[in-house]
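User: Teach me something about this protein's shape.
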Amino acid sequence: MNRILYILLYLCVLAYSILPLWWLYLYSNALYLIIYYILGYRRKVVRANMAASFPDLDARELRHIEKAFYRHFAEYILETVKMATISAEEIRRRMRFLNPQLVDKLMNSGHSCILMATGHVGNWEWCTAGGAFFENACVWQIYRPLSNTAVDRLYIKLRTRFGAKGIKKSETLRGIIRLKQSGIRSIVAILADQTPSPKNINYRTTFLKQDTAFLDGIERIAKKLNLPVIFADVKQVRRGFYTVEFIEITSAPRETPEYFITEKYAQLMEQTILRNPSQWLWTHKRWKHTR
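Assistant: First, the predicted structure itself:
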């Protein structure tokens, strides 16, 4: 049954993916109206998150950001669908990495494995098309398998089209240890802006004017294996075009104070969000675990 559902889903994605992006953006306008006005998808969550994050803004300003977010969210969905058929040349043109030399510098200095901390900003799915960008390094993604196996299989197929590979979240440490031991030049991408489970809350800081729990897994792995950590600052230049700038958090994690890496990530993530709030995934219940 799951196999049949997967085939149907993939055929449906292909049917839309073969359309040019400008055509898909016409559909995104209709999709925005459906998600925002008809379904009201997680609108209460979005409004609560935005109101707490921007207490100085009035209702009109908050609604402006809210609607801009849902428009971007609709575009993100169809841009992700486009991954089924988009060429490597086209995605390199639309998702530009500004300073890949930072990765080369770290790897040439002896680090065969690097942790890339990023977040749900811009189009994070396009960022996973790492094989199209890094010819001398393999990109690995830490992912949490979806409960629906057909949908999970579809996402894996889209994310690995250009050579990127996946590591299940439950196997993160073991997988990264194997990569380091193999000596294969690898970049491990981790979306670190998610909410940790209550038992995994070890660090809190002020983030978007709220007391916020942060995952400290990247820091613990970096210090245990002495792996450099870089931040991927994603910026939308215009509709369908993004840039990624790498910012070095540390190349010597064992020499940093406790929670330095986690705090630095939180600060950089906040700066990215404040630059263009509509680009972040506000539908997350990011602050559901209070003290």
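Now, about its shape. The mean pLDDT is 93. Residues 2-279 form one domain. If you'd like, I can walk through any region in more detail.
User: That's plenty for now, thanks!
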